[in-house]
Amino acid sequence: MENISFYQKFNPLRRQTQTRPVPAIKSINMNFPESINISHLGVHYRTQEALRDVNCIVKPGKLTGIFGPNGAGKSTLMKAILGLVPMSHGNVLYKNKPLMQQLDKVAYVPQRNQIDWNYPATVWDVVMMGRIKKTGWLRSFSTVSRQIAKEALERVGMREYSDRTIGELSGGQQQRVFLARALTQQADIFCFDEPFVGIDQKTQSVVFEVFQELAAAQKIVLVVNHDLGESITHFDDLILLNRDLIATGSRQQVLTEKNLNLAYGGKVMYFAA
Ligand SMILES: Nc1ncnc2c1ncn2[C@@H]1O[C@H](COP(=O)(O)OP(=O)(O)OP(=O)(O)O)[C@@H](O)[C@H]1O
Fold first, then answer.
1. Of all atoms in ligand 1, which is nearest to the CA of residue 85?
2. Residue limits of the ABC transporter domain (predicted)?
């Protein structure tokens, strides 16, 4: 039997990504239409400048981390990319069009402190929410949607918790449920804001495994993280911020002593990428 991941199995683009040749680059303005292209992005909160002239690309097939010290603008960058905070200037393009016009292609899991854990929803309800865009409001879910949700829960080891309310779960279990919901969306772009905060080691391993499966399926996987410890070695590409873009590229290119000093002001030890 063909050995494929959960995500590849339910990925409607799977056959195309396997057989279709790489499309020709048509845009004059940007070189990577299959990537997210971020140009001259700036964000102000009232008088405070949170991000200044950020230019980078986020490629499919890579696990990309947004790193930087507290208050560097990591979450702001993710939110600006998704149109959740207004940009003061710049643009974010995907497939030659503003990403904001294509949010149906995005699955986003916000920071856990932005989720109401007392809301009386079951694990199953939360995961099925990931199918609403495909199904439509007030319409009943298809057998296929139910199957996708079951397999997503299975993938993150939460199938037997389907009937629990989300408030009854541990932090790690809650994070796995939201990961399952993101999987059911069958998106092209996956964005996670601080998914490793307050979770156990087992959940961290499951989450990284799923991220790597998504990247292997040529998805865009963008993760805000602040942990400069061993877990950073799971990332392929990094965006290092401190209001300005300090560096972007492969992990090896970004994690230099000079870049870390610029971002953290000499407060972290340099270690080999
Ligand atoms: N809604 C807001 N209104 C005003 N200022 C804000 C708002 N959100 C963020 N900021 C400010 O913008 C700056 C960047 O915040 P942001 O949350 O993006 O940083 P971060 O790198 O994600 O930080 P952390 O690691 O602490 O979560 C900070 O100085 C923060 O105080």
1. 1
2. 36-268
Nearest CA owner, ligand 1 atom 6: 45
CA distances from 116 to 119, 121, 167, 181 (A): 6, 10, 9, 16
Interface predicted TM-score of the whole assembly (ipTM), two decimals: 0.97
To 5 degrees, how large is the angle CA 12–CA 17–CA 22?
A: 145
For the stretch 130-154, what's the b/e string if a residue is b when 16 or more beta carbons lie within 10 angstroms of its beta carbon?
bbebbeeeeeeeeeebbebbbbbbe
pLDDT tens, residue by residue, 26-56: 333 456 879 999 999 999 998 899 999 999 9
Q: What is the mean pLDDT of the chain?
A: 86
Residue 22 CB neighbour total at 10 angstroms: 6
112 lines ligand 1 (CB under 6 A): no
Atom of ligand 1 nearest to the CA of 194: 27
The answer to whether the Cα torsion of 255, 259, 262, 263 is positive or negative is negative
Answer whether CATH 3.40.50.980 is correct for domain 6-264.
Answer: no
Rounded to 5°, the CA angle 141-116-11 comes to 35
The domain spans of the chain are 6-264
**Ligand 1 contact, 74 CB (< 6 A):** yes
Q: Which residue's alpha carbon is at the smallest distance from atom 9 of ligand 1?
A: 76
Please name which of 126, 141, 130 lies closest in space to residue 106, comparing C-alpha atoms: 130
Residue 210's nearest CA partner among 84, 141, 89, 107 is: 107
Residue 273 CA to residue 267 CA, distance in Å, equals: 17
